[in-house]
Amino acid sequence: MTMSRVKEQKHRWGGADRVKPKRHPTYAEMVKSALVSLNNRASSSIQTIMKYILTKYLLNATPAKKYCTKALTNGVTKDVFHQTRSEDF
């Protein structure tokens, strides 16, 4: 087989050109929507944020907690979110 024929087969069957539809928004967007909807001016705990995200988007709890925590820490370092207490996540 030549290289051009292999490329044609990949393209014909979808291969890398195929894009999966998104099931949910990014974790940063989910955390932001959770903080807006919870509307707690003092602070919102990670447990309440996770509870909101898990009920609204129907995700698996174990990887969601990891990615949610990562989104929160990245948001705090990029000044997207404001951390009221100086505790680590």
UniProtKB/TrEMBL annotation:
<protein>
    <recommendedName>
        <fullName>H15 domain-containing protein</fullName>
    </recommendedName>
</protein>
<dbReference type="GO" id="GO:0003677">
    <property type="term" value="F:DNA binding"/>
</dbReference>
<dbReference type="Pfam" id="PF00538">
    <property type="entry name" value="Linker_histone"/>
</dbReference>
<feature type="region of interest" description="Disordered">
    <location>
        <begin position="1"/>
        <end position="21"/>
    </location>
</feature>
<feature type="domain" description="H15">
    <location>
        <begin position="23"/>
        <end position="89"/>
    </location>
</feature>
<dbReference type="InterPro" id="IPR036388">
    <property type="entry name" value="WH-like_DNA-bd_sf"/>
</dbReference>
<dbReference type="InterPro" id="IPR005818">
    <property type="entry name" value="Histone_H1/H5_H15"/>
</dbReference>
<dbReference type="InterPro" id="IPR036390">
    <property type="entry name" value="WH_DNA-bd_sf"/>
</dbReference>
<dbReference type="GO" id="GO:0000786">
    <property type="term" value="C:nucleosome"/>
</dbReference>
<dbReference type="GO" id="GO:0006334">
    <property type="term" value="P:nucleosome assembly"/>
</dbReference>
